[in-house]
Amino acid sequence: MPAALVLVSNDSGISQQDDPLEDTLAINTGHISYWGDAKASNPYDEFIQNRKIKSAFESATAGQREEVPPILVFRKPESGVVEFCGLCVPNHLEVRSYYTASGTQVPNY
After folding, report:
1. Of 19, 44, 72, 87, which has the fewest Cβ atoms less than 10 A away?
2. 4-8, 17-21, 26-30, 94-98: which range is least confident on average?
3. What CATH number does domain 5-108 carry, 2.60.40.2310, 2.30.280.20, 3.30.200.20, 3.30.230.10?
4. What are the extents of the domains in the chain?
5. Which pLDDT band, with edges at 50, 70 and 90, does 14 fall under?
6. Could you say which DSSP state residue 53 is in?
7. How far from the centroid of its chain's Cα atoms is residue 44's Cα?
């Protein structure tokens, strides 16, 4: 397990790719929804960063908090700017799918 996990989310409209699953950073309420980095060419369960996130959630669910690295959350409000949002405590992991423009189903965390 890494010493820390770093999640970086783009604000709407500045992503370099067409991403139908937008991250939600509700900093005031302390809630985020972060979609992993899977692509049609890189399945969610093979992508190394997604495996690290899954491992952190599995450790948290098993009550092994000492095994869960701190999760640092950042946002990119505009190109070239990164802001620290806070620390994240994992509490829910699910696999959801979206479809690419060509109709390919892409599951992702």
Report:
1. 87
2. 17-21
3. 2.30.280.20
4. 5-108
5. very low
6. H
7. 11
| Residue where the block lists tokens 């093979």 | 46
Tokens of 97: 């799918």
* pTM of this structure: 0.71
| pLDDT digit string, tens, across residues 41-54 | 777 777 788 888 88
Which tokens go with 99? 């479809």
Classify burial at 38, counting beta carbons within 10 Å of its beta carbon; exposed 0-12, middle 13-18, buried 19 or more: buried
Name residue, tokens 């098993």.
62
Residue 20, φ and ψ in degrees, nearest 5: -70, -15
Query: DSSP strand E in 1-109: where?
Result: 5-10, 24-26, 31-33, 71-78, 81-88, 96-99, 105-108
Residue with tokens 């700017």: 81
φ/ψ of residue 72, rounded to 5: -95, 130
